[in-house]
Structure formats: structure tokens, C-alpha cells
Write a structure and sequence with these properties.
The structure is a homodimer.
Chain A: H1 2-6, E1 12-16, H2 17-34, E2 37-38, H3 48-56, E3 62-64, H4 67-75, E4 80-86, H5 92-100, E5 104-109, H6 112-124, E6 130-135, H7 150-160, E7 164-170, H8 181-204, E8 211-214, H9 217-220, E9 231-232, H10 242-247, E10 257-267, E11 272-275, H11 279-282, E12 299-302, E13 307-316, E14 321-325, H12 333-336, E15 342-346, H13 350-354, E16 359-363, E17 369-373
Parallel strand pairs in A: 1-16, 2-9, 3-4, 4-5, 5-6, 6-7, 7-8, 8-9
Antiparallel strand pairs in A: 1-10, 10-11, 10-15, 11-14, 12-13, 12-15, 13-14, 16-17
Helix pairs in contact in A: 6-7
Chain lengths: ~375, ~375
């Protein structure tokens, strides 16, 4: 891969396409075996060639984190789009516009107030929105408690208001805090059980609740059975990252995103290498800080991708990366890592690092590089 | 300002133009009084209307953190551009191209190796590059120690190699760790003294070293005299932010950048408000974490900009902000902060938060909003 790499200005975000394809196959085959549909969350890549590879492998529709992602996917012919952030009333006009163009956009709520605003807006514009109800399965963010009577109230408001209740959804974000197979399996089962129970509560009230959507990459890769679940949403599996590696759901050779950087200086006395990948390239995401291994701003690798143990990416300014070497490795730093030589950095969090770049440089098995643009902003 | 704000989709990055103009005037007047030129660092805004306002107020050229910023400024007629990151040999062709088009681009080095690579490339292409030497005044990052004989070696390599030595430069990045006027004044004096001494060392060796360039926003606003200095580089003063507020170099009513966000949900039992500004909008920058006051992911304000004390922006997912209210403020959260209502968030670090947005929404004194695009990537 060194030939095309040599011509790249740094910093650039490299996607290892064979690894990405492997990751896509791995998740799709797992979901197929568990008998559920996979609706990948495209907030990780925000990149059409990646999304198309997921669809080609068998994904059913997509999950998005912004309506801009929804518009972008729909413009490329992907119609079944789930905007999985609680709907703000002010965004309903944009959602309506997408549906009027033929996009089967579905939206999310977790309160009577927001459900009523969807109903009111839908009636006003003669639109039957497709709506999911968010369930809180682990206390980490939004969603309704399955024991809370409001759950059935929200379903009733939507259905009696003429909207279509697609189902219930949850996201076990707490799985990011775990790192043993046993704990992850237990969290996956909790996510499944709570969300299936929520659907049952609604059905017991005589209301239709066809679908049960769950998912996070750690739980999707840990669940032993998904009885009652109809679809799984997961995102970061497409590239994986060091946070996922610490959690234990991927191997080092499955990390498909890296940042290529150039050595621009040294502080020999301190054992420092200075590079042109600072936080503007890596993001400020320090997601591994409280995990079993703190990778600083990322794992330092050779240009070919081999991990350099003892090289710690400890500091980042806007366009400066500061890598410290263990004392034994500091002898003649400038000869070992000369100015102008290249390193690759594996990111803590692929979603955050990818977002710092207008495009990926996608590298295939033959070492050919293509530029894949990605979305920025809202 | 509420009328145009009401029509904005959130999250958006709001620039308060009167505050920005005040900040520009404040820094320019201070530099004028100290008898030095101001060369603002445009890495903060990456936005032409902001840069033009700085030039209009009296700035002499610009400092950039990427060659893309240099190209962008030069395309708009700003010729005197200092690329203040140590030059990688692989970027020399791009620098040459800019100079061949007439841009008075100057570049930076802190080693004999890199200086020699500039000389070799310059000779090969018959170009006399204008070069600065980076000095380490506080041990925080790159640059040569003023006591190190290599300093004169680098100057000699450049000058005898036919390049033009513009001068020496330093950046007192350690000033970000201080928060008393006395400590800041001492650091400003250290920055000045070390860099002036470096110029003297070169001059004592019989070599020409015309300019002395220093600067960081905290030291620029704290220096009592700048004898021997020819120019100051500072960037974040144009917007200021909570990090600068903690350092003590700006008042709350000088913070010119904020993120407008919408309330999308609550967890009443926990006293949580959920918004549509997560880390994708705020960045993951937690620059106030180790300062005198930790602002979480930013200071929560009303839509009009009044600080809401007791509201802590403690958590951020990609498109979810999680704000916790102190217990006494939690009564009827949904009535006080209804779904669909707006909040404004002051960022920890203006450079990092701005970078998350493709454009700013610039709001003038009459409440009119203009869209100002900004650069993304390299």
C-alpha cells in the first residue's frame, strides 16, 4: 500500500476496504443467523459507498442521526430510513417534505407532548407519520421506562391520532461501559427483554405494535438469542475502533479506519515525536480513557499498520500530535522516525474521528485508493 | 434576536457579531498600544468574513494552521501568510505553488534536517523560501531551546542555503494552564524574553534575523511590554470561550460563539434535559475539565444568552446533549424547558466547536442572520 500512500498529503483518513467488507459480512451473517433484520446506523460513516456496501450485503434500510443523512440516503434510492433521535417539533416540516417525496421515513418519540405534536402536525398536513416509541432499557439516556403507564398513553395518542405506530426501539448505550462476554451477554439480554416487554405492554392494551428494534454494536455482537426482536441497529461495527477493541468485540485486524500522518519534528531530550495529526484530525474523543487500556489519542502504528508498542499518543494540539516513546525506545529518535516519515493512528472512536474529515481515502486489497466523500453538518 | 432564531434548524453555531467586533478591536488596540503588529491566527474561525474583519481593523497578514487556510486567504487577496506548523518536506510542493502564484507564504522549521530539506527543495526549484525558526519558550511542544547551539546551525543552513530567514517565533501554549494575572504576566514576559534572546543569538553569530513573532491569546492580553517583539499571533480572542474565561482574560459578555439547540426530551425523575446538541455539535473538547471551573460540555444559557446557573451539560452522545438540573430546579422540568424550546450553549473551546459546523450563523445587532461558510479538512 506504500506506493499510493506516498503521494497522499497528510493527515488523511484511511478506510481499509477489505477489513470494512469483512466487518459488514460479520455483522450481517450474525443477524441472519439470529433471524433478525439489520438496519445499520449510518452516523458512523456518513458515506454512501459504505452505506451501499451494507445494503448490498443484506441490510434492510438504514438508521440515521440527522435528517440530512436521511435526505442523502433517500437521494440515492434508500427509502426505508429511521431517524433515531427524538423528534423535535421544529423538524417535522423537513420530515414531511421527505415523506412527500416518497421516502418511507420513520421518526421517534418518548413523550405524550412530542407524540401529540406529531399528531397535530400530521393531521394539519394530512400525513400519517410512521412513529417509533423509545424505550429506556438501561438508564443511560432517553426513552420511557417499560413500567411507566405513559408508554401505553404515547402509543394511544399516536394511534388514535391517526399515525402509524411502527413499534418500540431501544439502544443499550451502557454496553460501552462493559468488557467481559458475560456482562455483554447479560446487557444484550436486558436490551432484548425490556424492549420486547414494552411491545407486549402496548399489545396488551389492544394496540398494534408490530416491530421491536434494538441495538448497539457491543450487544449485537454478544446476544445469544433475539426472540421477539424484529431488527437490530448498530453502527460502529463497520469500522470498529479502540473503544470496541477494549470492550472486546473486535480484534486488532478488524480496525478498518486509521489516520495517516507525517512526522514533522522531535524533542529528542523528552522522547517526543511531533506529527501533523492533532485533535483536528483525531477529534478530542478520549473514549478509552476510562477503559481497561487508555490509548491516549489513538494507537500509533507504522505506515503499514503494525502497532508500535511503547509509543503513546499523549498530547494533541489543533494540528500537532505529540507522541511519547518509552525511554528505551528514545535512542536516536530522529533516525528511527525521521521527519517526513509516515505513521498511522488507530482512533479511539471511529464516528468522532471520521467526522473531522470531508472524505475518506478508501484503500482496496490492491492498494488502490479512492476518495469517498462524507457528510458534514446538519 | 428571537425572530430569526425561531426559523433556524438546530443545532447551529451562532456568532454574535457585535461581540466579535468588540474582541477584534480590543486585541488590535492593545497591540497598537504595545507597538507591535498583530497577525491573527485564523485557525479559530477558518471563515473569511471573520478574517476580513480582523484585517479591516488593522491586522498585518494572517497565521494559518494548514496550507488549505493559506490558499483560501490568498484567493481572497491576503498575501502575507505564515504557516505556523513545522514544515513537512512533503508539503513543500504545495507551498511552492502558492509562492509561484504570488502569495508571500512563510514557513516554519525547528531542525537542521527540515531546514536542509527546505534548502534542497528551494535550490532545486530556484525558490527563495521565507522561513521562521521555532523556539521552545515553555517546554510544551515543539521548537528549539534558546541555549541549544542547533539554533544558530539552523539559521546558518537556511541563510547559506539561499533562503530568507524571516525571524524567530514562539508560542507560549503553557499559558493555557494559568489563571492569575501575575502568572500570565510572568509567562508573557518569559515568552518575549526567550524569543528576543533567540534572535540575539542568531544576530550575534553575524546572521540576519529581522523579526520576532510571539503569541497566544492569554499572553497577548497579559504582556506589559513587548520590547524587541515585532508581531504577535493570537487566535481564539476573536470569539473567546470558556477556557479563556477560566484563564481570566475575558468577561462572560465577550463570548461571541454559541450553539443554539432544541430541547427534545426529558428524564423528569433524574432531572435531565435532552437536547439536539451532542458532541457532534459541541465537539468532544473538555478543555475546562482541569481548570478552576469545569463547564462539562459547555455553559447552558437561555435562548437570549443568559446563563442558567445550576444547569450542567454533563453528557454528550453524537446527537444528544444531556443537561442535568440541580434538584431544586427539577420541579416540573418539562414546563420550564418544554420540548421544542431553545437553549444556547457556550463552548469550552471555540476552535474545536466551530470545526464541527460547515458554517456559522452570524447575528448582527439588529438580529439579522447571515450564513458564513467555514473551511473543513485539509
Amino acid at each position: 500500500m506504500s506506493a499510493p500512500f506516498a503521494s497522499l498529503d497528510t493527515p488523511v483518513a484511511i478506510v481499509d476496504v477489505p477489513r470494512m467488507q469483512h466487518n459488514i459480512q460479520r455483522m450481517q451473517q450474525r443477524m441472519d443467523a439470529l433471524g433478525v433484520r439489520l438496519r445499520p446506523h449510518v452516523k458512523t460513516s456518513k458515506c454512501l459507498p459504505v452505506i451501499k456496501a451494507q445494503i448490498a450485503a443484506g441490510a434492510s434500510g438504514v438508521t440515521v442521526s440527522t435528517l440530512k443523512e436521511a435526505e442523502h440516503c433517500f437521494a440515492e434510492g434508500i427509502s426505508d430510513v429511521f431517524y433515531a433521535v427524538a423528534m423535535a417539533p421544529g423538524k417535522l416540516a423537513q420530515a414531511l417534505s421527505l415523506r412527500r417525496q416518497g421516502c418511507q421515513l420513520s421518526i421517534l418519540t418518548d413523550s405524550v407532548f412530542a407524540a401529540q405534536s406529531i399528531v397535530d402536525f400530521g393531521k394539519q398536513h394530512d400525513e400519517c407519520f410512521e412513529v417509533w416509541i423509545e424505550i429506556d432499557c438501561d438508564g443511560h439516556r432517553s426513552g420511557l421506562n417499560v413500567e411507566d403507564g405513559v408508554l401505553v398513553d404515547v402509543a394511544r395518542v399516536l394511534i388514535e391520532g391517526g399515525m402509524r405506530l411502527r413499534g418500540v426501539m431501544t439502544h443499550a448505550g451502557s454496553s460501552y461501559e462493559l468488557d467481559t462476554p458475560e456482562a455483554l451477554q447479560a446487557m444484550a439480554e436486558q436490551e432484548r427483554r425490556v424492549c420486547v416487554t414494552a411491545a407486549q405492554r402496548i399489545r396488551e392494551a389492544g394496540l398494534s405494535c408490530p416491530e421491536v428494534s434494538i441495538g448497539s454494536t457491543p450487544t449485537a455482537l454478544s446476544a445469544l438469542n433475539l426472540e421477539g426482536v424484529t431488527e437490530v441497529r448498530a453502527g460502529v461495527y463497520v469500522f470498529f475502533d479502540l473503544v470496541m477493541h477494549n470492550i472486546g468485540v473486535c480484534q486488532a485486524d478488524e480496525l478498518a479506519l486509521s489516520v495517516l500522518t507525517t512526522v514533522i519534528g522531535h524533542q529528542q531530550d523528552k522522547g517526543w515525536i511531533i506529527t501533523d495529526a492533532g485533535w483536528m484530525a483525531m477529534s478530542r474523543d478520549r473514549g478509552t480513557q476510562r477503559q481497561r487500556r487508555d490509548f491516549g489519542y489513538g494507537q500509533v502504528c507504522s505506515e503499514a499498520g503494525d502497532w508500535i508498542e511503547g509509543a503513546l499518543f499523549n498530547g494533541a494540539n489543533q494540528e500537532h500530535g505529540l507522541i511519547t516513546l518509552e525511554a528505551a525506545d528514545c535512542v536516536d529518535l530522529a533516525a528511527r522516525f525521521p521527519i517526513g516519515s509516515r505513521l498511522r493512528i488507530l482512533p479511539n472512536h471511529a464516528c468522532a474521528t471520521g467526522a473531522q474529515f470531508p472524505h475518506y481515502h478508501a484503500c482496496d486489497a490492491d492498494g488502490d485508493v479512492q476518495i469517498w466523500s462524507r457528510l458534514h453538518g446538519w
